Amino acid sequence: MRVLVIGANGAVGKHVVDRLKESDHQPVAMVRDTDQIPYFEEKNVETVLADLEKDFEKAFYNTEAVIFAAGSGPKTGADKTIIIDQEGAIEAADLAKKHGVNRFVMLSSMGADQPKQAEQIKHYLYAKHRADEHLKTSGLNYTILRPGRLTDEPASGKVNVHEGSPERGSVPRADVASVLVYLLSAPRAENKIFNLIEGSTPLSDVLAY
Amino acid sequence: MRVLVIGANGAVGKHVVDRLKESDHQPVAMVRDTDQIPYFEEKNVETVLADLEKDFEKAFYNTEAVIFAAGSGPKTGADKTIIIDQEGAIEAADLAKKHGVNRFVMLSSMGADQPKQAEQIKHYLYAKHRADEHLKTSGLNYTILRPGRLTDEPASGKVNVHEGSPERGSVPRADVASVLVYLLSAPRAENKIFNLIEGSTPLSDVLAY
């Protein structure tokens, strides 16, 4: 599939693009600034220049699937959490639906199921929750992935992917990316929500129950 | 009707309580802190102590109508915009629906129809937009009021209330409160959205077309 990666230049997004490149899929990296283009061109990855805060509809032409891995990050204010993490994701789902996208895989966050219970980053979890709720009722074929605390450790290739109550833990960003790409083509992942932490299951055995 | 005023201690909320007190309705002021209670008790207004950020379901027992006039205000960060203005309003609508509330009047903001076009306070307008969208699909009998820039001028009693495209302008908070209470009992206001600026129409003639 031709897969639009929203947030391709982010810490998870770059891994996602690499994993897609190794797969049968064709990544298209959505980037905001022209100076982000050479990084992907050197990898022979197609880019589309579009900004989540502006009109980014053109990014959806000929797109078969979307992996949404964008986030405003902790360095900006909570205003950007609303504008990017919540509303960027909501508009991306609306545009995906409008353009007949077949699959939408959302990078969410552990805790987004019950933001009111959160002790920290409550506003962020509310924003992710609201975006996830919108996706669930969008009519899109979706998968929502909610990883625990993200680390920059190298990929372990072994994970704990589960439905139901979240089990606290951390997980390398590189493994998160692998799971996002894996879920994209896993029929058992369709219209489901998963939590993810590092674990002992090889990626190839995920959902192989 | 027994009308729960959420945000009763706010700049608009206090006027709302006064207008309800003069009407056939019975206001119940939802306040967050015990030190906010005497102000209302001196006016013989019933209070309920509940916090939008915590569990405030008890405020809905025996409530027939709700006027939502709460807002985190400009002095707090955008994290509170998500938690109070957006999620507080969304949860209030859910609780109102759960408890069979007959009318829900929402104080929104001009510009909440098209937050993406906003040059200023875009995150705030997105939060209000998201709350309004939730209310519209809640199944509640709602009215959404979107005033222009709020001032502390005395009430003029004359307003411009209109559907359709917003017409920029300002309006005293005291008049906003009068319109909120007026709309509460106006059958023509049910399940509609209105913009409000100061104008030339006496309140008694609003929607009297």
Structural write-up:
- The structure is a homodimer of 209-residue chains.
- Chain A contains five helices and eleven strands.
- The first copy, chain A, has 209 residues and is of the alpha/beta class.
- Chain A has one domain: NAD(P)-binding Rossmann-like Domain (Rossmann fold), CATH 3.40.50.720.
- The radius of gyration of chain A is 16 Å and the shape is globular.
- The interface between A and B is medium-sized, with 17 and 17 residues.
- Chains A, B: It holds the Pfam family NAD_binding_10.
- Chains A, B: This is NAD-dependent dehydratase.
Distance between the termini of chain A: 25 Å
The level 1 CATH classification of chain A is: Alpha Beta
Reading the helices and strands of chain A in chain order gives EHEHEEHEHEEEEHEE
Coarse structural class of chain A: alpha/beta
* Number of continuous helical runs of chain A: 5
Strand elements of chain A, count? 11
CATH topology of chain A: Rossmann fold
Helix-residue proportion of chain A: 25-40%
Low-confidence stretches of chain A: none
- Beta strand % of chain A: 15-25%
What would CATH call the architecture of chain A?
A: 3-Layer(aba) Sandwich
Global mean pLDDT of chain A: 96
Protein name (chains A, B): NAD-dependent dehydratase
InterPro entries (chains A, B): NAD(P)-bd_dom, NAD(P)-bd_dom_sf
Domain NAD(P)-binding (chains A, B): 7-187
